[in-house]
Amino acid sequence: MARNMTLIVIPTYNERENLTRLLSAIKKQNIGADVLVVDDNSPDGTGKIARKISQKEKRVGVLHRKKKEGLGKAYVAGFKWGMKKGYEKLISMDADFSHPVEALRRMIKLCSADTVVTGSRYVKGGKIVGWSWDRYVNSSTANLITRLLLSIKTKDATAGFKCYPVEFFEKISLDKIRASGYAFQVEMIMLAQDNGFKSVETPITFVDRKAGESKIQGELVKSAKLVFSLAAEREATRQFVKFCIVGAINTLVDWLFFFLARTSLTAALGTRNLQTLKQIAKAISFIISATSSYIMNRKWTFRSTNPRVARELIQFFIVATGGLIINSLVFYLITAQVGWRDIFGLVIATAAATLWNFVLNKKWTFKNRTRLTLE
Ligand SMILES: Nc1nc2c(ncn2[C@@H]2O[C@H](COP(=O)(O)OP(=O)(O)O)[C@@H](O)[C@H]2O)c(=O)[nH]1
Ligand SMILES: [Mg+2]
Predict the structure, then answer these.
(1) pTM of model > 0.85
(2) Is 276 within a domain?
(3) Which residues contact 78 (CB under 8 A, 6 or more apart)?
(4) Which of 198, 233, 268 finishes a domain?
(5) Which of 47, 125, 272, 338 has the most CB atoms within 10 Å of its CB?
(6) Which domain holds residue 107?
């Protein structure tokens, strides 16, 4: 294989009907890139076909692997090979013509030392051809959930058609990649974002395969699990879950102390001023539950070591008061203005207040900790 700037890595598993045609379609593009086929010992003989072509074409190489270990592992092996050979840009591409060869030149051009390029289905101009309605819904929903869970900015987070600068592989460690299968693509774009690489998307028309079979069946659950565990490892997600647990516990604390205070107040002072006593009981339970919530969030959720506890506590109370106002305001708007049922008002108001409390406490009250969330 000639030393070249760009390497296109194509993992294959039973792609005999596609590979020969794809390799000549790439050749016709005249982009001067080399190609590495990574075959997992395909039972249909794709590996042998690849070997034959590579003997004729100096721009084509093959990596034969012993057994099917998944898309992610095949890519890791291919990228490592390419790094060792000194390529500057590395492309991931499927063997089934879903990724248009016409986009290759554009992607290589857009890719630079600090920019990862995605051939994207979900930006303006991007299209999907040949997918049934339900496959489209499944894929775009999975894409959306993945983006939300991992806060990925790239619109096509599950895209498999990408061009990476070698600097990206030098910065991350390919041995630390967790995904062996389809979640690999998600993990890669997440790593690019987390490591400060720019993400550029160029629209492509994704065409469903006409020959051979998709290998995605049975992979979906595995990939979803990995996305969830990646999300669970993100400090921001962990903090949010902890914050919600603290919130739930202290709602109970709030109720408990409200009843205790109301009972003892009415026992001592009688029920003549019941409304006033209730308000006092509510204030007492708010102070107690907010303080306990502050302690739990300081120690557990945000692990704050800020010595200025009084100041933190005051900030926490200001945020909590704001949360209460938002809670009642949203509830009022939803029920009285929009006219929805109380239960919807309750749910949306609680969600809005929780979000407000979380974001403000994270960015303001306990902000001395945010430094460490990049890990
Ligand atoms: N080497 C290798 N390639 C794989 C494996 N699983 C899928 N592929 C290849 O990865 C690409 C994408 O797979 P495909 O079945 O088209 O997935 P889909 O487009 O999501 O249905 C194709 O080129 C497959 O041949 C695997 O376990 N090992
Ligand atoms: Mg495919």
Answers:
(1) no
(2) yes
(3) 9, 11, 36, 38, 63, 90
(4) 233
(5) 47
(6) 6-233
